[in-house]
Amino acid sequence: MLEWVVIIGLTLFFALSISFSRIYCGMHSVTDIIGGWLVGAALLAFWMYSFDKIENWMLYDPNGKF
Hints:
By secondary structure, this protein is mainly alpha-helical. It contains two helices and no strands. The protein is elongated and about 55 Å long.
């Protein structure tokens, strides 16, 4: 459990530091960063919803039906 907390914490720190550095350096605006976060969150939600279904379809369905 502690390993996951450390991994998630470091990942969030990494993502936030890159986001703020892009704003600081003038490479992106705040709306660009928020839009990127929203797109990333939507892709993560889609992947989490569909991963088990796709895996079961690919590995265990003998008829090949989705």
